[in-house]
Design a protein that fits this description.
The structure holds two protein chains of two kinds. Chain A is an alpha+beta fold. Chain A contains three helices and five strands. Chain A has helices spanning about 5-15, 30-35, 40-45, and strands at about 1-5, 15-20, 55, 60, 75. Chain A has a five-stranded mixed sheet. Chain A starts with a strand and ends in a 6-residue tail after the last strand. Chain B has a single domain (about 5-155), classed as Aldehyde Oxidoreductase, domain 3 (Alpha-Beta Complex). A four-stranded mixed sheet of chain B has the order 1-6-8-2, with helices on both faces. In chain B, strands 7-5-9-10 form a four-stranded antiparallel sheet, with no helix packed on it. In chain B, strands 3-4 form a two-stranded antiparallel ribbon. The longest helix of chain B has 18 residues, at about 60-75. The radius of gyration of chain B is 16 Å and the shape is globular. Classes of the chains: A alpha+beta, B alpha+beta. The interface of A and B includes residues 61 and 83 of A.
Chain lengths: ~80, ~160
C-alpha cells in the first residue's frame, strides 16, 4: 500500500510518500502507526504522540481503529489548520 | 436544474466581486449571496507574521470540500455555491479562502456559509506554516474549530 505524509509528519519522516508491505498482523490504523513507529528514529519522532495523528484511507478520514485491509492509499497528518 | 457548484484549489489570488458576479450572472432565482473571506493576519499572539505557507493533500482536499458542499446542498435550499482555497505562500492582507452561498432567501445562505467554513477548518486537509522573525512553525489546530464543526451535527 501507498503511504502519504503531510505537514510535520512529512517533515519528521523526511519523505512525502512511500510504498510499504506491512505484515498481516498489522490490521488497523493503530497497528500501522505502531509498526511504522518502529522503523527508525524519524518515524518514532513523527508518531511519538499517536493520539494527535489523523489518518485518511483512500481520501476519506478514518478513526484509528479502522481496518486497513483493501486500502490503496493511507495518509497520516496532524490536525488540519486550513480555512 | 442542477445547482452550480464551483470548487477550486489554487495558488493564485481570487477577486471576491468577480466570483460573486460569476455566480449570479444571468440568474433571477437568487435573492441572497453570503460571502465569507478568510484573510491572512499580520500577527498571531502579538508576534508579527511575515507569511503563511499552505500545504494540502490535493486529491483528498477536493474530495472533502465536495463532500461538504453536497451536505450543504442537502441541508439548505441553495441555488449556488463557490469554495476557493488557496495554497502556497500567502502574505498578510491576502486572501486565503472564499465561500459563497447563494439562495432565494438570506437565512439558508448565512447558515450554509457558516456550516461550510466550520467544516472546512476542522476537516479539509490543509496545513498552515507561519513564517516569523524567529523562524517557521506549523500552526496548531484549535479545539474550538472542532467544537464549531461538531455543533452542526447536534441540531
Amino acid at each position: 500500500m501507498k503511504l502519504k505524509y503531510f505537514a510535520w509528519v512529512r517533515e519528521r519522516i523526511g519523505k512525502s510518500e512511500e510504498t510499504v508491505e506491512p505484515p498481516a498482523s498489522v490490521r488497523t490504523v493503530d497497528d500501522l502507526i505502531a509498526w511504522l513507529a518502529h522503523r527508525g528514529e524519524t518515524y518514532a519522532h513523527a508518531f511519538e504522540t499517536p493520539r494527535v495523528i489523523r489518518a485518511a484511507i483512500d481520501h476519506t478520514h478514518v478513526k484509528s481503529d479502522t481496518m486497513i485491509a483493501g486500502a490503496r492509499e493511507i495518509a497520516f497528518f496532524p490536525p488540519m489548520t486550513g480555512g | 436544474m442542477a445547482v452550480p457548484v464551483t470548487i477550486r484549489i489554487q495558488e493564485a489570488d481570487f477577486d471576491v466581486a468577480q466570483e460573486i458576479s460569476a455566480l449570479t450572472k444571468g440568474r433571477t432565482d437568487i435573492g441572497a449571496v453570503v460571502s465569507f473571506s478568510g484573510i491572512c493576519r499580520g500577527s498571531e499572539n502579538d508576534e508579527a507574521i511575515a507569511a503563511l505557507t499552505l500545504e494540502h493533500y490535493p486529491d483528498m482536499a477536493e474530495a472533502e470540500i465536495a463532500r461538504h458542499a453536497q451536505t450543504a446542498l442537502s441541508r439548505w435550499p441553495l441555488t449556488g455555491l463557490t469554495v476557493i482555497h488557496r495554497v502556497g505562500r500567502i502574505v498578510p492582507g491576502e486572501n486565503i479562502v472564499l465561500v459563497l452561498t447563494a439562495s432565494a432567501h438570506r437565512q439558508a445562505a448565512f447558515q450554509a456559509a457558516e456550516f461550510l467554513m466550520d467544516y472546512l477548518k476542522a476537516n479539509a486537509p490543509f496545513w498552515k506554516r507561519e513564517e516569523s522573525a524567529t523562524g517557521t512553525s506549523w500552526v496548531e489546530a484549535h479545539h474550538h474549530d472542532d467544537d464549531a464543526a461538531a455543533r452542526w451535527t447536534k441540531s
